[in-house]
Amino acid sequence: MESRRPFIAGNWKMYKTLSEAVKTAEEMAELLRDIKDRDIMIAPPFTALAAVGEALRNSPVSLGAQNLYWESEGAYTGEISAAMLVSAGCRYVIIGHSERRQYFGETDEDVRRKIRAAVRENLRPVLCVGETESERDAKNTFSVLDKQVKNGLKDFVSDELKHLVLAYEPVWAIGTGKTASTEQVQEVHSRLRSLLGTLFGESFAAGLRILYGGSVKPENIGELMQMPDVDGALVGGASLKAAGFSKIVSY
Ligand code: PEP
Q: Which pLDDT tens digit goes with each residue over 109-165?
């Protein structure tokens, strides 16, 4: 079981050409080179993975991908397998981001298959879950999260998930500038941790890292990290610039 070292992850989404990505990665490698007490990951677009991996070599920043396809190989035009990500230098893969669920129709069943594929190749899955604004308004936050977690992790045993990272990302807070309050975040994280305890045992839940994502910036990371069940952050917009991301990492 992993210790709950703080984990700050950046998701570049569909931003940055190859040269832009390498430049930012080089700046991050330089700014973060002396950080030793936390795990850091950057997930650039597929086209920049190998080159960014090269730029991050010998730095404390690990490489992650934003998605994968669950088959090992085959006639699946446009898709990328877990083994391909590993061969490009990835250690982590983001799975079930709300933008994938919202715009590409990704289901909990797809998410489960993707986690299975990641685990098979020793890629560490960062599973994203989160409720929409209308689901929160209807007081369905916990039932939505329960379903996403239970279905996404169905049929796994705790040993297979020892490198799992969970990210709570309320959809209404992603890219909107609206951050959930620290109380809202803590309430959900603590519920998620007890759910994972019910599913996989108390010691699994105690060691699981739960990240918060949704308009995290240098100004709000400090108070979020003070919450007992917040173990890090998944950062979108504010991870695109090396200086801002480094400030978040060094909160
Ligand atoms: C995200 O995309 O996971 C995210 C949290 O984005 P932002 O930080 O821009 O809200």
A: 999 999 999 999 999 999 999 999 999 999 999 999 999 999 999 999 999 999 999
CA angle 236, 240, 243 (to 5 degrees): 120
> What is the distance between the alpha carbons of residues 198 and 184, in angstroms, rounded to a whole number?
21
Using the atom order of ligand 1, give the atom closest to the CA of residue 239: 8
For the record, the structure tokens of 176 come out as: 């909107």
Compute how many other C-beta atoms are within 10 angstroms of the C-beta atom of residue 57.
10
Pocket test of ligand 1: the residue of 169, 211, 230, 249 to mutate, having most ligand atoms within 8 Å of its CB, is 169
Determine if ligand 1 sits within 6 Å of the CB of residue 11: yes
Angle between helices 182-200 and 141-152 (to 10 degrees): 40
Question: pLDDT for 178-193, tens place per residue?
Answer: 889 999 999 999 999 9
- Biggest CA–CA distance in the chain, Å, is 48
- Ligand 1 centroid from CA 237, angstroms: 6
> What is the distance, to the nearest Å, from the Cα of residue 138 to the centroid of all Cα atoms in its chain?
26
pTM: predicted TM-score of the whole model, two decimal places: 0.97
CB-count burial class (<10 Å; 0-12, 13-18, 19+) for 162: middle
CA of 74 to the centre of ligand 1 (A): 32
Cα-to-centroid distance, 170 and ligand 1 (Å): 10
| Residues identified as active-site | 97, 169
Q: Which domains does the chain have, with CATH numbers?
A: 7-249 (3.20.20.70)
